[in-house]
Every structure is written in C-alpha cells, then in structure tokens.
Amino acid sequence: MQSLIKNEVYSEKQLRKFGLKKSIIANIDMDVYSKGDKVYFFESLETNTLRLFTIISQKSFYLK
12 — phi, psi (to 5°)? Predict the structure, then answer.
C-alpha cells in the first residue's frame, strides 16, 4: 500500500482505498480521518480534493 505524503492531494475515494475512515469532530475546521492508531488531518481544497496537513497518534488526539 502506498503511504500518504504531506502536501500531496487526494480524493475522498483514494482515502477510502487507503483504508482511512472519516471522523466527524466538532469544532475542527478540517477533514479528519483515522486508521489504526493514527489520526490524519486534511485541509479541503476548492477542487473537491484534500491535502494532508498532519498525522498524529490517536492517543494524543483524544487526551482530555
């Protein structure tokens, strides 16, 4: 499987193909996907595509 690379542009279909699942998170102005122990943040572009912004550990994301 190809890995995601920062600053590359992806469609939602490609992200699903990589096995990422979209998460609905309140108060975050980004598209959030998860897979395994990683959380992926994407910025939405005008071309209906997404650019990878950052990847963090799921533990870090859900700390309260």
Answer: -60, -35
| 44 bridge partner residues | 50
CA R_g for the chain: 11
Strand, coil or helix: 53: strand
Instruction: Say how far apart CA 50 and CA 31 lie, in whole Å.
Output: 8
Cβ atoms of residues 31 and 41 within 8 Å: yes
Q: Which DSSP helix (H) or strand (E) runs through 48?
A: none
Tokens coding 18 = 């990589």
The single-letter DSSP state of residue 15 is H
Give the pLDDT score at 61: 72
Question: What pTM does this model have?
Answer: 0.83
Mean pLDDT across the chain: 86
Residue 64, pLDDT above cutoff 60: no
